[in-house]
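Hi support team,

I'm opening this ticket because the web form for multi-chain structure prediction keeps timing out on my end. I have pasted the exact lines I submitted so you can reproduce it. The total is 561 residues across two entries, so I didn't expect it to be a heavy job. Is there a limit I'm missing, or should I split the entries? Thanks in advance, R.K.
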Amino acid sequence: MILENMEICQQQPIASNVYELVLKGQELVNLASQGQFLHVKVSEGTDPLLRRPISIAKIDQDKGELTVIYRAGGRGTNMLALKQKGEVVSVLGPLGNGFSLEETSKGAIALLIGGGIGVPPLYELSLQLVKRGVKVVHVLGFAGSSDVFYEEKFMELGETYIATMDGSHGEKGTVIEIIDNKQLLFDTIYSCGPTPMLKAIETAFPDKKGFLSLEERMGCGIGACFACVCHVKDDPTKTAYKKICTDGPVFAIGEVEL
Amino acid sequence: MSRLNMELPGLSMRNPIMPASGCFGFGKEYAKFYDLEKLGAIAIKAATVETRFGNPTPRVAETSSGMLNAIGLQNPGLESILANELVWLEQYEVPIIANIAGTKTEDYIEVAEKISKAKNVHAIELNISCPNVKEGGITFGTNPKIASDLTRLVKEVSSVPVYVKLSPNVTDIVEMAVAVEEAGADGLSMINTLLGMRIDIKKRRPVLANGFGGLSGPAIKPVAIRMIHQVSQAVSIPIIGMGGVSTAEDVIEFFLAGASCVAVGTANFVDPFVCPTIIEDLPRVLNELGVDHISELIGGSWK
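Hello R.K., no limit was hit. The queue was backed up. Here is the completed structure from your submission:
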């Protein structure tokens, strides 16, 4: 975990209000792994004050580049979207504990389920799993056709199904419906997306080994401010907790309350 | 560094910069970035008798040049802090200020008595002003009689000097300051966060799960400066100033208002290196101002 000024090598829209940003900075890149996130300062001044947590979508250690994908919508992310190639941003990272690769052995099937802006961290995960000889199946959910991104990139790595809520692209319905309809077979689950989707996955596959990446509003991103805590399951005292920024963002299915 | 050392009740500091309570955990996270012995002191996260989970999430919301928080005093509880956090901090030669909180007088007394005996705790910061805890805080921190009674009782049991952290959410902060000084407070910490709120215009609901939260960051600095300026002229005990400090120039401004040292809060979240950066930068600003020792600046705007 370091603080580094990283240069923007590329910034482009890849879906409706969704941007792909490539950052250069060797030191931080060398430390990064799948499922971790960056805390990006979007302005020089104090407004907005806090950094923005953005998950890592691709790590290219040879080039010393990290790719992140984010949705612009709030004030801070809109400011980030205006930044141009060649500009420098202050980045704190890599943060959090990402997806463990050890849980899926060579030849096994990993089901990667993404929802909306939860899809990006699954890309580097998929690259790493494929490298290990794991078969990957992707089910990616979006609101509509204009929200879909990285479909072809995921297809290059393995079977890929797209679900849209309005049916304007791929299959109409939820990611769970797709998994049911296609009767997909798998050994482990890896997922990132909105909490209701993660809850539905936990309910649908309680006995499968799996990992969920959570999201919460953060202050510091390093575990000091206690802003992004969640309850641990099966804790009658309701005092045990996990910090999403440092204990997570990835947790085993059933580990924390969603 | 002798231009920066500062002696306050209980606190012999190599420089007047400390992280503010609640913004630094118990130091472990920041120890990954730099040597904690660079700091003048450390105000650790509030301790309560019991383990507290705190408020539901979301607990933070951003505002213009500031943030709202409603953490709700989450902490592992007194016994765990004594056995784990403070013992871990013993490896660093840096005075610890133990922030203590509670929901009733007995809680404060129990925490103060026990935590003040820890060997690296050099002072207590009596948190009577946490705006996020429904069943306490506000009552103690907004009524001069209740605040002074509590200060007196905590002073009786504490083995170390007691600093009272004042709430800015009062009509007359000078009245509060004078009341706790008369009750025996050794110093003041000011200011705590300002009570604030944000509303999500699409959901038409408060952004914070708790509704209200405490506003901190550069947005509140002018309020802190004003209140320290007023209070420091009315009391003779030292003031630990805080509220939006993020640069060496900010520190100078707090000293000129009347503070004798400065705590850095929210800025740690934005830049984990902010405290050592300010410490390294202070001599430059002192040179620019032609000042030999930083203590010469205390109250310089009204003396």
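A quick check on our side: The interface with chain A takes residues 22-25, 28-30, 32-33, 45, 51-54, 57-62, 64-67, 69, 71, 74, 217-218, 246, 266, 268-273 of chain B (CB under 8 Å). Let us know if the file doesn't open in your viewer.
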